[in-house]
Design a protein that fits this description.
- The structure holds two protein chains of two kinds.
- By secondary structure, chain A is α/β, with parallel strands linked by helices.
- Helices cover 25% and strands 27% of the residues of chain A.
- Chain A is globular, with a radius of gyration of 21 Å.
- A three-stranded antiparallel beta sheet of chain B has the order 1-4-5, covered by helices on one side. Chain B has a two-stranded antiparallel sheet with strand order 2-3.
- The longest helix of chain B is centred in the middle third of the chain and has 10 residues.
- The radius of gyration of chain B is 11 Å and the shape is globular.
- By secondary structure, chain B is α+β, with helices and mostly antiparallel strands.
- Helices cover 22% and strands 28% of the residues of chain B.
- Classes of the chains: A alpha/beta, B alpha+beta.
- The interface between A and B is medium-sized, with 27 and 27 residues.
């Protein structure tokens, strides 16, 4: 007897989108979603932004469906209505032959399984007690430390470190950021764009120490934000026809990639072709400025416009736009062009 | 000014931020939809919140694009 059940291991965006696509595409077999955290599927980007801040909600905005301040990906009850069983607060520990074994000892049989267990934050030897930011519980712990006048050290000037630095400054926290590279985000956006971020953060009162390892000081809290590693060891070899992988577990770390991969995993399970390719796209909010990164920001950028609170930079196959939403449609069109030419050839 | 709202469905990735900022005005499943009228302030806040910049606002009288 073959098992038709789909088991989604992970309760983040990729698993959620996989479940939605399966149901939208007519799959009516059992779907089980397993989450290590006790929370129903929630959206992670707000964890380093709104959830840490005190910014009032938009005018007239009634309370959104929230769970400890994190917007849920779907309202409570949605999973019940769609026949999706949630197993929360029980981590998967092994992918056996046609069964997922959980920490509690339970074994969940599957016909097809999605490995969407995300990533876990990198740590730094000697800073084992420092805070990290990955889960809703991490964000709640960090939020408790962001009181006015508190002194926060952040190790790492990537997107997460910079977003937390910005939110903490808004809350009147004294922020010091340590970054080994000569500029923030230099590894992803290059040193010239990184310099713009350095000016922005310094202009808003962040003590940004570049080319600098963490140095102990009179800090009330230390946050380590030096990236994440895919949390997939538990699954062993995933190169099996009944095993699919999506989201941060694949090594990509972008919201939009996770959404797409989750949907594509569902399509693959159903024998449907993947969604058409899309332009990579990342956004970030820092000091009230929204930054968009499109395509692949590698190579030498042409910086068309640059001021304290605005940046327009074009890469051969990418773009970085800060506080320039009106240029987004043009940027998308420009980046789409070569792909369509390639497709037509 | 009275604003007219449209969703650019090619750009929309169903982030859902519009429905957080303006619940009851926007609904999101695999794409966002406008389901009710709203004041200009709320529409602007929702459009600015959209990470994909998929909410297009135009002046209902002149047809001029106001956002993005």
């Amino acid at each position: 007897m073959t098992c038709n059940d789909v088991v989604l291991v992970g309760a983040g965006l990729a698993a959620q989108r996989c479940a939605e696509t399966l149901r939208a595409r007519g799959f009516d077999g059992p779907i089980r979603m397993i989450g290590a955290e006790p929370h129903p599927p929630y959206d992670r980007p707000p964890l380093s932004k709104e959830l840490l801040g005190t910014a009032p909600k938009a005018p007239g905005g009634a309370a959104p469906e929230q769970h400890h301040g994190a917007p849920l990906l779907r309202p409570l009850g949605w999973h019940d209505e769609h026949g999706i069983d949630l197993f929360l607060g029980d981590a998967a520990v092994a992918l056996e032959d046609r069964r997922v074994r959980l920490e509690s000892g339970a074994r969940v049989p599957f016909g097809k399984v999605l490995v969407a267990t995300g990533a876990r934050p990198r740590t730094i030897p000697g800073l084992d007690d420092a805070l990290t930011l990955r889960t809703l519980d991490d964000a709640i712990r960090l939020r408790e430390r962001l009181t006015e006048g508190a002194r926060l050290a952040i190790v790492g000037a990537g997107f997460v470190g910079l977003e937390v630095a910005a939110t903490a400054r808004e809350r009147g926290v004294d922020v010091t950021v340590f970054e080994l590279a000569p500029a923030p985000l230099a590894r992803v956006l290059g040193p010239r764009i990184g310099e713009w971020f350095a000016r922005l953060h310094r202009g808003r009162g962040v003590d940004l120490r570049l080319g600098a390892a963490f140095e102990n000081g009179p800090f009330d809290a230390v946050l380590v934000a030096v990236g994440a590693v895919p949390d997939v060891e538990w699954a062993g070899d995933t190169r099996r026809p009944d095993v699919f992988v999506a989201g941060d577990a694949t090594g990509s770390q972008h919201w939009e990639a996770a959404a797409r991969q989750g949907a594509d995993a569902a399509r693959a399970m159903l024998g449907l072709p993947p969604l058409p390719p899309a332009i990579d796209s990342v956004w970030s909010d820092q000091h009230g400025i929204r930054i968009h990164v499109l395509g692949h920001p590698t190579g030498e950028p042409v910086i068309e416009e640059q001021s304290f609170d605005r940046l327009v930079a074009w890469f051969p196959d990418g773009a970085v736009l800060a506080n320039a939403p009106e240029l987004l449609p043009a940027a998308r069109a420009r980046l789409r062009q070569p792909r369509e030419e390639i497709a037509a050839a | 000014m009275s604003l007219r709202v449209q969703i650019d469905h090619d750009a929309c990735l169903a982030h859902g931020d519009c429905a957080v900022v303006a619940p009851g005005v926007f609904e999101v499943d695999d794409t966002a939809r406008v389901v009710a009228d709203a004041s200009d302030d709320i529409l602007i806040a929702a459009a600015q919140a959209c990470p994909s910049v998929a909410i297009v606002l135009t002046d209902a009288e002149t047809g001029e694009q106001v956002y993005p």
